[in-house]
Each structure stands twice: as structure tokens, then as C-alpha cells.
Amino acid sequence: FSIWNMMMGSSLLSVPWAFQQAGLAQSLIVHFLMATIAVYTAYIILKCADKLSSKQMPELIDMCVTLIGPWTTWLNIIASGIVLGGALVVYWILMVQLLYRSINSIYYFAEGGPLNQTFTKLQTEINKSECSSPSDTMELGKLPCNCFTNDLRLQLTLPDWWQRLVLPFVFIPFFLPLLQLRRITFFARLGALGTFSVAVLVIAVLYKCATWGFNMNFVDPTNVHYIPQFRSSVASLSGVLAMAFFLHNSLITIFKHNEHQKNNVRDLLIGYTLAFLTYLVIAIGVYLSFPYHKFCIKQNFLDNLSFGDEVALAADVVLFVRMLTVFPMVAYIFRVQVFTAIMGVDYPGKWRLALFNILLIAACVMAAVFFPNVGDIIRYAGAFCGMIIMFVLPCAVQYIMKRRQGPVNMGQLLILIFISLVGIVNFVAQFFL
Q1: Residues 184, 187: Cα–Cα separation, whole Å
Q2: What's this model's pTM, rounded to 2 decimal places?
Q3: Mean pLDDT, residues 259-270 taken together
Q4: DSSP states of 345-385
Q5: CATH code assigned at 325
Q6: Number of domains within the chain
Q7: How confident is the model at residue 113 (pLDDT cuts 50, 70, 90)?
Q8: 10 Å Cβ neighbour count for 345?
């Protein structure tokens, strides 16, 4: 389950939005294609590592240096740095959003809000005001998307502007001293919280699906529940999935400690299958059951749920605690990677580390204030690092190893070229689709 657990990240909250960006049929095709390519290139890495050394499996970065050249070291470091930096920015934004939601929900229930307050009970009032069908109000794609909060917004203890101007700064006094520590071992012991938080999220999604029921229409584009099959903004989904299925830079680290090395391929397939199904359940569940226009699904789908929803509150609190524990661990890995590459040491001294942490937190705060779009950040970072580490480099390593053994089969060569082109096109498409 360690493979599955490592792939259960912030992309979980954005896949429903990403499916909405691509359309239902296209989403299913892209989801299967990206998962298949991710599994295949991960398989390539495992097999090439096994062939290169019979004693200890070399990391992908070491295989690239041996087979391609030392310049690939920096390529790996830059790609890994971008994915780690992007993850830290996303975690900070999510902590802000989850804290904002949790405070308002707790305040609502503390003031006597009914414990069974769900969308179903609000639907009658809402339909009369903010959430009319597109044929009655305005053209498709320009609907009001604040249906779930409705009159609850008037009762909030924290107004909307707190999300942008206050809460992004709240975490600075906590994390700035914490990130100065030389080792952050305590948070590494909380790995089980990741599995628990994913379980809570899946249960919350299934509960909301059961509450809402399926709200689908595949025929009438003017229907509020209309679901298109294909949309031109499909790159949003492929970018998010590149991050979701990204495991390749730490793959060997996981498998070289496996007691039963002969089961590596089996364990890889099981882990990716579980990840594929988990993302699919959350994405399809929210997309098909969402009771208003699908364009209204937000980049963090929890933002679509009412503050008076006890299930949403449980998910908010659990995920918030999870983000609090994950952020320092990822920041530590990021710091070690950067300073090991630049200075050859993992701890550069307290003053250099302080400057690094200030710049890191400043970037996170700026993103939370000016660009709190977690889905967009995930897709850009995922598409770039995926292009290099998940698509191109494994194919290059495989090709060179095959060349050393003799002529390369034309079919295999075409597959490797196709996968590499998919990665490149996916990254370029983020800026045009």
C-alpha cells in the first residue's frame, strides 16, 4: 500500500474539476491512457535498474548519468524541485482554504446549526434564488456557482477576504521556526494519517453521492445537469493526472527495500490499480452526482460544499491536519535536495537555511494571496516534471539499454517515441488548451 499511499496527494481534491474540464468520455480515455503510461514507464525503470546492477538497484538519476550523461543530474533535480515546490505551494493554499472552511463550519454548528444540514434541505430555497436553470437565466457556462453556500455566507464568522488577506499569513509563525530544525523526524511517524485522510475523503464523496443522487443529462446542452463528452480544455486533466500518478523519482527507493524482489512488478501493478480506482471513484462520483451545473465544480471540490455540512466539516478537519503534517516533511526533502545539489551538504547552516525558508514561505504566501488555484498549479507542475521524469527519461534509458543489447525492435521504438511525445505535448498543451 506504500505505492498507493504515496500517490494519494492533493490531486484528489482537483480531479473532479479536471474531469469537468475534459468531458466524461474524454476523461475516461485520458485517465486510462495516463495510468497505463505511468505504469509502463515505472515498469521500465524497475527492469532497467535490475539489469544494470545485480546487487543494489540504482536510482533513476544514477541510471541516467550512467547511460545518458552527467548533465541529466541537473535535469532530474530541476524537475523534482519543481514538483516539490509546486506541492508545497498547493499544500499552503489548501491549508488556508481548509482552515477557512473549518472555522466557518464550527462557528455555524456552535451557533445552533442543525447537524443534518445538507444540500438536500437547502435545495428548495436555493432553486428559487441563485440556481435557476441556464435556460431561465443566462447562457451556458456563465452560471452563478455559489449555490452551496447561499444564505450561510451571511452568517460567517470569517468573511471571504480573510482567505486572501489574512489566513495565508497565519501559518508563518508556526512553520518558519519549525522548518529551521535540522531534522524533522516526528512528522515522518504520522504516515498512517495519509491513509486515514484518504479513507475519510472517499467516504465523504460516497456519502454525498448517495445524498445527491445522480444528476446527469447527456442530450440537452441547456439542461443544468448536462454533461458533455468532449471538451477542448482536456489538458487540465492530463496535467493533473501527470502529478497524480507521479512516483518515478522515488520508485527505486520504495522497491529496493522490498523483501520479495520477485514480486516488484506485481506490487507495482496493484499499487497503480488502487490509485487509478481511487482517483476514478472520487472524480466520477462528484462529477456525475454534482447537483448543479458541472461548470461550477471548483478546483478544490470541497469548496462546493456548504459550511453547514457535517460530512464536509469532518473531511476539512482531517485533511487540514494531514496538510499540517505533510508540509514540513516535503519542505525538508526539498531543502535537502536543493542544498545537496548546490553545496554538497544537506544542512547549510542556520542563516542560509533561514533565508531559504523565508523565500519558500514567501512564495507560498504570494501564491495563496494572488493565485490560489490549486488545480492550475498542480497541472503545470505535474505536466513539466512528468514530461521529464515520467515520460522522456525512462524511454531514453530503455532505448539506450536496448541499443547496447543489439538492434531495437521497430515496434518498441515507436512505443517509446509515442510516450515521449505524449509527455512533451501534454506540457505544451497546458499553455494553449
Answers
A1: 6
A2: 0.89
A3: 86
A4: -S---HHHHHHHHHHHHHHHHHHHHH---HHHHHHHHHHHH
A5: 1.10.4160
A6: 1
A7: low
A8: 11
